[in-house]
Specification:
CATH superfamily of the largest domain: MetI-like
Number of helices: 13
Low-confidence stretches: none
Order of helices and strands: HHHHHHHHHHHHH
Strand content: under 5%
CATH topology of the largest domain: MetI-like fold
Number of strands: 0
Number of domains: 2
CATH class of the largest domain: Mainly Alpha
CATH architecture of the largest domain: Orthogonal Bundle
Largest sheet: none
Oligomer: single chain
Length: 276
């Protein structure tokens, strides 16, 4: 019992340390810029309280509309996640069911891609994307598919191994081909892992700064993280109040989405680990 209380205390302190930066962002998003620097961790008072001015200033700063950045972020996140879920689940099913030497090599290459730091490939990736004209919000999902497929295939493969082969054999006897079997039988059974992988990919892509910054033409296309980075005035000065306000607006949807779906994350990871 004593060990249990110690563990609860330790994890509570760790959780508070993780939450503290988000609390600081929320507090400072309602402060005037000068007070963000001088009184970072104090609550806003009558003198330092800025109301919604920071939010208005952040969304109207410069000549690039914040709404446009939101649209591009949503578009890139949805398209990229959809591509990863579709092609990674199909690849995982093929790897498990065919299970020949080529499939095994491909699987281990996908696992290896999870180990390689993005910084090792980012310059060649950016140059290749530019040559292939993959530098728009409509084509960058192809790059996200290549970068994010490794983890998705790993999780999907673990789950497919737990699907009884008898189910697919019964579908084949009823006249289902491979495509119909996959979309009618396998995909519905993959639902827990699909939700889990989808949530993780959405959180990663929505918050990603480096890949869009390297690939996209930022004079024309900006995601929310890039838009926030350009909240600079003359001589490189940054309005921290407006910056904190936009950061708060960008993380609120992710927090709500994660909290409402965290049960599915646990279920999906557990399902994918049955025979992974």
């Amino acid at each position: 019992m004593k060990k249990h209380r110690i563990a609860v205390t330790v994890f509570t302190v760790v959780s508070l340390l993780y939450v503290l930066p988000m609390v600081a962002v929320a507090i400072n998003s309602f402060k005037k810029n000068t007070y963000v620097r001088s009184e970072t961790f104090s609550l806003p008072d009558s003198e330092s309280f800025a109301g919604v001015d920071n939010f208005v200033k952040g969304m109207t700063f410069g000549n690039y509309p914040f709404a446009k950045s939101v649209i591009y972020s949503v578009l890139i996140t949805i398209l990229s996640t959809a591509l990863i879920l579709l092609f990674a689940s199909m690849a995982a099913w093929f790897i498990v069911r065919v299970n020949n030497l080529i499939c095994k090599i491909f699987y281990y290459l996908c696992i290896f891609s999870m180990v390689v730091p993005f910084q090792m490939i980012m310059y060649t990736l950016a140059r290749t994307a530019d040559k292939l004209s993959l530098n728009t919000p409509f084509t960058i999902p192809i790059i996200y598919l290549g970068v994010g497929a490794g983890m998705a295939i790993f999780m999907f493969t673990g789950f497919v191994k737990s699907i009884p082969m008898d189910v697919e054999e019964a579908a084949a006897i009823d006249g289902c081909g491979p495509v119909k079997t996959f979309f009618s039988i396998v995909i519905p059974m993959m639902k827990p892992t699909l939700i889990s992988v989808g949530i993780l990919e959405i959180m990663w892509i929505w918050n990603d700064y480096l890949l869009p910054m390297l690939v996209l033409d930022i004079t024309e296309y900006r995601t929310i993280p890039i838009h926030i980075q350009y909240l600079k005035g003359s001589y490189g000065t940054v309005d921290l109040g407006a910056t904190m306000a936009l950061i708060l607006l960008s993380i609120i949807p992710v927090i709500i989405f994660y909290v409402s779906c965290q049960k599915h994350i646990v279920e999906g990871v557990a399902a994918g680990a049955v025979k992974g």
